[in-house]
Amino acid sequence: MTKGRIIKALSGFYYVKSGVDIYQCRGRGVFRKKKINPLVGDFVTFDISNPGEGYISTIETRKNELIRPPIANIDQAVILSSATMPDFSPLLLDRFLVLIESKDIEPIIFISKMDVISEDLNKNIEKYQQDYKAIGYQVELISTKKELNHLDSYFSDHVSVIAGQSGVGKSSLLNALKPSLLLKTDDISKSLGRGKHTTRHVELIEVSNGLVADTPGFSSLDFNEIELEELADCFPEMRERKENCKFRGCMHNKEPKCAVKQAVEEGEIASYRYEHYLSFYTEIQTRKPRY
């Protein structure tokens, strides 16, 4: 039995890296019977059947997993937003943050295209940077033409996914960090305000002494897997204040003597973050029941 990690899944084959070698493996039939799908990022044991080939026999317990993209055991998610084309959206950023927090994955925020915006917009983005840093997030402002070597430390010794809407520069970022990738990116359609990514499968690629998932990012941004009671815990500044609410299980909505609402009134929690919380709260509350 040999141990390794799945670094690519393609056409029913799983490519498992063990040491410096990569083995093309199939999954045992027992996985199909149990309806278990091996995922990129899984730590596995496998039997070597022929040179460079094998069968996966066991999958170690995952610390986390995503459905779209299908990947497991992620250390961090780099959320890439752009200052312009498409315009920076704190609502969309908070949507990504909630989804990532719900999976117990550490989020890191990059805001791109800082070199092509006006001075006023630059100040606006810097204010958002201060807000999110105050919550405890790492926030990096990056320019299109600037050398991005200083970002290497974010990826070193970590397994990362890069999330963000189309057109923000996910492939451009990876190409800048590792020029040999030559990832394909289509030109941004100015009429649609979005770009197209040509990735067809999930693969962990070595970037800056770490592993990064080359995927189209989050293809689903709904909250179907988040329960109403869990939502506030996906906002760190609310999570740390909930013990100070008068009522246990306070939803920070209509309850009196709520520490979160008080923090909003006193400017300790950004009002737009709280408005986004209420918006997501209503969305989860009104979704159709699952059976």
Automatic annotation (TrEMBL):
Its cofactor is Zn(2+). Belongs to the TRAFAC class YlqF/YawG GTPase family. RsgA subfamily. Zn(2+) binds at residues 245, 250, 252, 258. It comes from Virgibacillus byunsanensis. Residues 63-221 form the CP-type G domain. Its main location: cytoplasm. It comes from the Bacteria. Binds 1 zinc ion per subunit. This is Small ribosomal subunit biogenesis GTPase RsgA. Monomer. Associates with 30S ribosomal subunit, binds 16S rRNA. Keywords: Cytoplasm, GTP-binding, Hydrolase, Metal-binding, Nucleotide-binding, Ribosome biogenesis, RNA-binding, rRNA-binding, Zinc. InterPro entries: G_CP_dom, NA-bd_OB-fold, P-loop_NTPase, Ribosome_biogen_GTPase_RsgA, RsgA_GTPase_dom, RsgA_N. Its EC number is 3.6.1.-. PANTHER family: SMALL RIBOSOMAL SUBUNIT BIOGENESIS GTPASE RSGA, SMALL RIBOSOMAL SUBUNIT BIOGENESIS GTPASE RSGA 1, MITOCHONDRIAL-RELATED. HAMAP family: GTPase_RsgA. Pfam families: RsgA_GTPase, RsgA_N. The keyword Nucleotide-binding applies. It is found in: Cytoplasm. GTP binds at residues 112-115, 164-172. The keyword Protein transport does not apply. Residues 72-219 form the EngC GTPase domain.
